[in-house]
Amino acid sequence: MDLAAKLKKLSLTLEQKNNYLYKVVVKSEQLESLLLSFINEFDYITLDSINCRDDLEDGVFTITYCLQNRNRDHIVMIQTSIERENATLPTMHILWPQAEIMEREMHEMFGVNFPGHPSLIDFALEYWNDIPPMRRDFDTLEYVNKMNPFRGQRDDALDAKEEMKKRREAKKAAKLKAEQEAAAKEAQKVKTNTSEEVQR
Amino acid sequence: MNSLFLLLNLLPIIYLYKFNAYAHFSVPLGGDFTISFTQTPLGTFFAYLSLISMLLVVVAQRGKKFTFGYYLLQFLLSMAMLIIVFASNFITFFIGWEIMTWSSYFIISKSEKIDTKSLQKYILFSLSSAFFLLAGMVIAYSFANSFDFKTLSDAFGSIPFGIKVSIITLLSIAFFIKAGVIGLHYWVLDTYSRAPDLFSSILSAVMSKMGIYGLLLLYGNIIGYHELKSIYGTILNGTTFGYIIAWVGVITSIIATFKAITQDEVKRLLAYSSIAQLGYIIAVVGIGTNYAVAGALYHTLLHTVIKLLLFINVAAIISQTGKSRFSELGGLIYKTPISFVMLLIGIIGLAGMPPLGGFASKFMIYNATIDVKFALILIGILFSGAASFLYCYKLVYGIYLGHPTSREIESTKEVSYSYLIPQIVLALILILTGAFPGAFIKVVNPVLKEFSLKSIPYDKPSIMHSAVGDFNGLFIMSAFVVIFVLILLLVLKIKSKATNSLNRFDISYCGEIPTVNTRLHYGYGFGTDLHRINFANQILKRSSSGFYESLSTQTKKLSELFNRAYRGNIHNTMIVILLFFSILFFIGVSQ
Amino acid sequence: MIFQIILLIMLAYSVGFIYFGLYRNITARIQGRYGPTVYQSFYDSIKLFCKKETLSYGWMFYLGPIIMATGAVLTLILVPVFSDSDFLRSITSQGNLFVLLYLMVLGPLGNALAVGTGGNPFGVMGVVRGLTRLIGLELPFYIAIVGLIIAANSSDIMNIIDIQKTNGLNIVNHPLLFIASMISMVGFFGESPFDIPGAPQEVYSGPRTEFSGKFLALLMSQGSLFAFAKLLLIVDLFLGGADSLLMLVIKTFVIFVSVIFIGIVYGRYKVEQAVDFLMRLPTLIAILGLARVVWFA
Amino acid sequence: MESGFYGSSIKCKLEESGIPNTHAIMERVVRWFESRSIFVIAYGTGCGAIEMPPTFTSRYDAERMGVVGVATPRQADLMILSGYLAYKTLRRVIRTYEQMQKPKYIISLGSCPINGGMYWDSYNTIKKLDDYIPIDVAVTGCMPRPEAIIEGFVLLQERIKNGEKAGWEKYDKNLKFYKENQRRVLGDHTDPSYETDWYNLGGGDI
Fold first, then answer.
1. What is the number of domains present in chain C?
2. Strand D38-43 and strand D67-69: pairing?
3. Chain C interface, best mutation among D27, D33, D67, by max C CB count within 10 A
């Protein structure tokens, strides 16, 4: 497709994931100009999402912009990677208005900074004073245990294993009892029959 | 100095008290021109009205810095109004009218908020009213050969029909301009809102009533309602003339009411509301039955009282806070409680609610219209009355209720006593007229006799009689008070305690807490719903200003034309002047 | 006479509450529910009176509901109850129809002051919508009232009742006026489609947003009194009053139920839609009825 | 039918209360009225909100027990918290609860308010709601059916009628405990410490 040719000029490769999903990998310096050209020249008017992946091992965030053009027949993923510490990205809310809230969420969850963003205020977490929760070095379980520990068991609570064993035994005993009673009934029946015969 | 002018304003009242009815004295100026006065009951009523309200305004002006000239002009104005109400011929009336115009003009020009445009508006409209008056009286003179009211009214029957109509129309327009009928109200708003705050009360309460006095004098005294009936014929049970004037009044009141609701400036709202209230009066002035005249007079009195109260109150608040818009004021109820109560009494009167006097006058007006079966007129009045609740509520809410809109408002103190005393006096008058509505009939009956209408039955001051049923003001007020007190005691006895909220920002606001930047005062969005209602929108989107603007531009063009004629050498000018005089000469010959 | 007044208030209180209970029941049945007991509104009011806390925003807020209740009681005692007996006749003769028309608005305005003092913008929004709706709502009602007054040539309700004795009920003589005033009544009872001012969804239950405990209870009680007074007024004006308690209850109940049945099947108008509607069809009907009174009677 | 039933129950209660103590009797009567009319503010915090409409509308008609929905916390006696609460929600919930007028009760729906439920390891969801505000009746289940909710209403009504110690009394008694729990999770931003100096501008005093 002609998009590949256009990207060739920018010395970028367009690799095809499947028949509707394409992917471009760019350096973080190129990103802004590329996105500009995508909306201006290639007419990709829709920004589906901005995704962030925390590659702790490489010490980078991998950011992915998913774009669609007018005839919504395929998606182009523009992928770039930025440093983890004091990570910074250009804000895209001028090109795509919906980018504002996506970037706001990313800033809150990963601590990525967007210079010139109009509203980088609290989004879902109010007054968050820990490291951003979606980073992989943020230990969720520890945080949860610190903030709101589990509810301890009630003082009249019972040990589950013991209870199960007791119940099983009780069941067994009941079964056994029932069998014995049945046997006794049988015996009685026989006795009565014999006694009748005796009367006759 | 203030006390001196207090005395000066007090003197005529005392003098008037020992003045006997139908006293007459005149100063001949040679020819038909005489300055002559007669004390009629109608004139006495209006004289008392203007003098007492002037006195109260002077009381309110105590302790403020007004120049000697200001006081002098104000005194001149009140004297001018005395001349008007006691004049017994057109010359005297006209002189008084002119003095009133000019003195008020100079007072208004002393305001710091005034600008040239509105000053020009005021003087232009006042002068045009004076010229209409002049034209009317000159035509009348040319047929009756006398400026005197009495001789004119005797000779009026013999005047040809067209001339009668033209005289009535010219004089009516002259007075309509003063009263600010819709279409001729262009000057009212800017003047009322830009004039000195205390003088606005005089403008609205007293000077507009001079128009009403003129109308009553013209229809009742000079021409006479029977004459009007014979001129215009009858419709339903009243006169056609009355029907036309009534429609003028009703349309005025409805349009002004809807305009008033959407105003953001306090004094502009009051200006519109006073136009609307005068609309009620004009609606019944023309009808000319005894109840109609009584209603007109009664509403004149009460509107004077109410508008004085409201304007003085608003002037006090403006001087205290320096703010004059609803979107800037608000939340003053616990800062200035006495003023709040005064304004509350004022708007209850303005809305015409039963316990206070405002209802009695409106009741008379309703009866007058039912008496002559002008159903649509009555419905129009009732309708604009229902709409007027909105601006009454806006007035009290925007200033006193809701949340304070700025930090300065928070530190407001109670207004000074020189403002409060007149308000208290006026509020007492309102309450008394509410309790004893019938007492006013004693004042009206002589006027009715003067107009040769049959008088209204009167037995007790607390009972208001009318053609279609009567009501007992004292009973309703006392019942209201008693029930109120009982329920209050009941509620106080109930065991569930009412704890006072620590702060007024602790409102249930969907779980959020409003901050400084949250706009909690609804004064911002008040009356915006009206624009979405078709009927109201039709009224609100039109305005008379466009017409007058175009008129002024056309006049400018015309003057350009004349200017071109005068430009150049002296000969053309001479020729133009010669032509003009020759035309005049030929006209003179031809007659 | 005091005894009679107390009797009347008790009657109106109980009857009003039972009517509102029936109203809730009928609504429930129409919606396919079982519905609460008939005395539910009474329970609610008692509960609210006995709340341990009640929030107030200063003396004006305190007095507002009391003014409203006063207006309701005054309206109630000024409407004639029985057509023949001289029950409270000495009081009802003190006022007339115009006094009632204005007393019906006095209470809500008094309460509006309290709402403004509370300072909740939702409450004031509700008040403004209510007053705006009133512009449209009063028009057909006023026309109907004026028509009746001109027809009877008296604004005294007793005379209107007496005239109906001689020449037929007004509902028969002036059906158009009756229809118009009933459409207004739907609004006066705060029924759909004219119930925007107190809408819980749109304006956060409007004027009553900040009221709690005994104030809310007071508002509810005066509402039932006021409703009964309005029903009495309609019965007196159009159904020729009631000569016995039974007839009174029957006639008022018939009016009440018909109002419910009109109101219950409609959605909720916006305020401008409501006013536009009221200014078109009901006003036209009322004007026709008025014309019939003024010219062809 | 209910009225008859409850009426008889009141009568027998009075009989067993021995010496007729008018004050106690009045208390009982008032409590009975309170139990018969409950105004609900339904706070849809989580997925449980979807069970609210069928509870209050034609299918399971809660109004027949005098349980009616209202819009504002000022008029409400009972707050229904349906489902899990994020910290952000918890702040509003506390605000709303403190705006309700006493006596006031809370019903929590679902297992999330009890022990976190499926959000047991979420960094933004509280586990034990009763640490922050007192819960009168906790209806378990994920989600509880409307029948269960109505069961909760009936239980609450019984408790009110018997005059058992209600949640708001606990909240008043150990306010310190609740407040410090709230402060632990919400930081120093719990109500009423949204400090603007507007906040201390007093209203009018009677």
1. 1
2. parallel
3. D33
Confidence of residue C204 (pLDDT cuts 50, 70, 90): confident
How confident is the model over A74-121, as pLDDT tens digits? 899 999 999 988 899 999 999 899 999 999 999 999 999 999 999 888
Contact state of A148 with D122 under an 8 Å Cβ cutoff: no
Q: How far apart are CA A125 and CA A133, in angstroms?
A: 10
| Beta-carbon contacts below 8 Å between A and D | 46
Give the C-alpha separation, B81 to B95, whole Å.
10
Mean pLDDT of B284-309: 92
Cα gap C66→A102, rounded to integer Å: 53
What pLDDT sits at residue D18? 58
Q: What is the mean pLDDT of residues A41-68?
A: 92
Asked if D75's CB is within 8 angstroms of C212's CB, the reply is yes
B-C interface: how many C-beta pairs under 8 angstroms? 218
Q: What is the DSSP letter of D21?
A: -
CATH number attached to the domain at A2-147? 3.30.460.80
Q: What is the pTM of this model?
A: 0.88
Task: Assess whether chains C and B touch, using the rule of 3 or more C-beta pairs within 8 angstroms.
Answer: yes
| Mean per-residue pLDDT, B530-542 | 89
Of B91-95, C254-258, D202-206, the least confident: D202-206
Is pLDDT at D8 greater than 50 in this prediction?
A: no
Chain B residues whose CB is inside 8 A of the C63 CB are 488
- D176 lies in which domain range? 38-186
- Of B406, B397, B411, B403, the C-alpha closest to B505 is B403
What's the burial of A187, exposed, middle or buried (CB within 10 Å: 0-12/13-18/19+)?
Answer: exposed
At D3 the pLDDT is: 37
Q: What's the pLDDT tens digit per position in B121-176?
A: 899 999 999 999 999 989 998 888 888 888 888 888 888 888 989 999 999 999 99
- Residue C95: which H helix or E strand, with range? none
pLDDT at residue B18, rounded to an integer: 67
Return the closest-CA partner of residue B415 out of B582, B102, B180, B197.
B197
Q: Residue D194: inside a domain, yes or no? A: no
| Number of domains forming the structure of chain D | 2
Query: Which pLDDT value is given to residue B344?
Result: 94
Instruction: Please report, in angstroms and rounded to a whole number, the separation of the first and last CA atoms in chain C.
Output: 39
**Residue D110 domain-assigned (yes or no):** yes
Residues D120 and D93 in one domain: yes
Q: State how far the Cα of B403 lies from the Cα of C117, in Å rounded to an integer.
A: 8
Q: How many CB atoms lie within 10 A of CB A83?
A: 12
What residues does each domain of chain A span? 2-147, 159-195
* Listed residue (B228, B229, B314, B313) closest to B266, CA to CA: B314
Q: Do B532 and C127 touch (CB under 8 A)?
A: no
Strand D38-43 and strand D78-82: pairing? Answer: parallel
How far is the C-alpha of B364 from the C-alpha of B102, rounded, in Å?
35
How far is Cα of residue B386 from the mean position of the Cα atoms in its chain? 20
Q: How far apart are CA B356 and CA B433, in angstroms?
A: 7
B487, pLDDT greater than 60: yes
Same-domain check for residues D101 and D20: no
* 3-class SS letters over D26-88: HHHHHHHHHHHCEEEEEECCCHHHHHHHHHHCCCCCHHHHCEEECCCCCCCCEEEEECCCEHH
ipTM at complex level: 0.85
Radius of gyration of chain C from Cα atoms?
19
Phi, psi of A188 (to 5 degrees): -55, -50
Query: What amino acid is encoded at D106 in this protein?
Result: I
User: How many structural domains are present in chain B?
Assistant: 1
